Amino acid sequence: MGNSVLLFAILLSWVVIGSCNYLLDQEKDKILKLPGQPPNVDFNQYSGYVTVNQQSGRSLFYWLTEAPANRDPKSRPLLLWLNGGPGCSSVAYGAAEEIGPLHINSDGKTLYSNPYSWNKLANLLFLESPAGVGFSYSNTTSDLYTFGDAKTAEDSYAFLLGWFERFPQYKHRDFYIAGESYAGHYIPQLSQIIYEKNKGVKNPVINFKGFMVGNAVTDDYNDYVGTFEYWWTHGLISDSTYKYLQASCEGFSSEHPPVECSRALNAAETEWGNIDPYSIYTKPCNYSSLLKSRGRYPWRRGAYDPCTEQYATKYFNRPKVQKAFHANITKLSYPWKTCSDIVGEYWADSPLSMLPIYKELIAAGLRIWVFSGDTDSVVPLTATRYSIDALNLKTVANWYPWYDNGKVAGWSQIYEGLSLVTVTGAGHEVPLHRPRQAFILLRSFLENKPMQRS
User: What's the angle, vertex CA 297, arms to CA 183 and CA 300, rounded to 5?
Assistant: First the structure.
């Protein structure tokens, strides 16, 4: 009897110690107040690091913004947001200028509330991935020169496992992934790992329900076909350059194009003139510096470049900001940047197509939505439509307009296992250009309801 009581006491102490450990870890990560934060913040924020590889010392940085108290965060799902690049920061783009609750003013010092923040519908988890992006780091410098799709997906999954241990209250909660651009690779690949790891598990820790991607790199062949067609039909390039691109690029890798394709892309860039390819009808912000900072081909970097990018660079390099975020704890030898030149330039494996993964996950019954802003020339709507057509899915509801306050806000088509939604007038970063419509889009996705027809 005495032994039983002793054993029970030992087990109970382990439970208490374990509980205390994760609560202490959460408390360490809790953001008390961000510099320049507005006074009306009514939600909890956490940020910090999760080690994904002990041997090389790779740690990924996250920022969690929970739903406001009056929106009952405990009842809301968890949504992971990923930006692409490869090599661009989800904190810089997704959080600070798209879907996050706090955006940066032009002074680079103060913040303002986003009225259409997605944290009103879900608890938002932003991840800077892979290591070398934003505040995420590796103690092994060579890692930054060897990242590719596979290692990024594996590290992101390891991050999720570690993060759920730190935040066990989110275990078994409905979980979704969303993002844009080259996250069109990240998201299906991470989704595939989660789905396969969950097979045969009755009550999985990561209760994965589905994903949503916007202006997403999907299939190199169809993406090229649709992109060049968009450039030509929108008057951005000449007939001769259109044919040059078709002959030199179609069928090849977009991340690792052959020399002749690069020459054709250079010719197209010259013919564009001084426009913002991420939003062809809006005024560019420092376009020449954009090309310089991201290399010769900005359409291979997954982020729109309005002036807000400059505000983020100022804000996240401030020592007070980094301290409040529990960031840069290793004192990185380089400044925080919106996109990592090294990670993007030396990207390794990049499969030509995500369509086989789509087919697997559609067959698994996961919720999959694809959305597209129709003024983006980087990964344009035509590219997305060609890629979806290649799946040969049966149509459930044919192309129709959807409305916001009586006005056409875009179009939609519903397939068996996949929904396509366009957002009119939006560029590469849909929530930046059309925040209200993007909010409506998320709400429909989470409720699994078609976009409103009237």
Answer: 10
DSSP 88: B
3-class SS letters over 261-322? HHHHHHHHHHHHCCCCCCCCCCCCCCHHHHHHHHCCCHHHCCCCCCCHHHHHHHHHCCHHHH
CA quadruple 312, 315, 319, 323: dihedral sign: negative
Contact yes or no for 266/296 (Cβ under 8 A): yes
> Could you read off the pLDDT of 123-177 as tens digits, one per residue?
999 999 999 999 999 999 999 999 999 999 999 999 999 999 999 999 999 999 9
Structure-block tokens of residue 348: 């390794």
- pLDDT (tens digit per residue) in 12-65: 555 445 556 888 989 999 999 999 999 989 999 999 999 999 999 999 999 999
How many angstroms separate the CA atoms of 168 and 158, rounded? Answer: 15
Burial 431-447 (b: 16+ CB within 10 A, else e): bbbbbebbbbbbebbbe
Q: Which residues are catalytic?
A: 181, 376, 428
Residues whose CB is less than 8 angstroms from the CB of residue 243 and which lie 6 or more positions away in sequence, other chains included? none
Adjacent-strand bridge partners of 289? none
- Burial status of residue 349 (CB atoms within 10 A of its CB: 0-12, 13-18, 19 or more): middle
DSSP label at 119?
Answer: G
Which residues, at least 6 apart from 68, have a Cβ–Cβ distance to it below 8 Å? Answer: 42, 43, 119, 120
pLDDT in tens, 59-90: 999 999 999 999 999 999 999 999 999 999 99
For 205, which DSSP code?
Answer: S
Q: Which domains does the chain have, with CATH numbers?
A: 371-447 (3.40.50.11320)
CA angle 53, 55, 58 (to 5 degrees): 40
